[in-house]
Amino acid sequence: MLFGMRKLLILCLFLAPPLWVLLKDDSPPRETPPPELIHVAEVGDLERLDALLAGDRDVDPRDVCRWTPLMKAALNGHVEVVRRLLDLGAEVDAEDKGGYTALMLAASNNHLEVVRLLAEAGADLGHRERTRGWTALEWARRQGHEEMVALLQELGARR
Fold first, then answer.
1. What is this structure's pTM?
2. Domains in the chain, ordered, with CATH?
3. Could you report the per-residue pLDDT of 50-91, keeping only the tens digit for each?
4. Four-residue CA torsion sign, 77, 80, 156, 135
5. Phi-psi region for residue 100, left (φ > 0), alpha (ψ -120 to 50) or beta?
6. Which of 13, 42, 112, 122 could cross-link with 72 by S-S, CB 3.0 to 4.6 Å?
């Protein structure tokens, strides 16, 4: 009986997949953290932003949702960070996965000075996102930001 068990054990070892197959990780890749520059722009840390951009770095890295540092800074109303990124050549009309731009994010969050900076930099006031087809003006109107609506109209935005 003991001899039969050995044969069975050897047979099982022979038929078992190699260890590297058992240890292989087939799970989807983990989301990587957003580039540091995006985080720095999101929190409005101008000093750190300048340090990160001191070399020849890309001013428009993207996270998994295709957000740029300019979008994060605009969303949170960080005027000086937005100004610096625009001065360094950030793409003013960059779109995320849904077609949203920095202008839309700033307008829907009532960041008047940021919207003014983006418009001066040539942001497309008539751009429509892909989810609902709304412009920055429509987002501001739907959020009830009357002062923002007036500013966008003054800047030339139309329905």
1. 0.79
2. 33-155 (1.25.40.20)
3. 999 987 789 999 999 999 999 999 999 999 999 999 999 999
4. negative
5. beta
6. 42
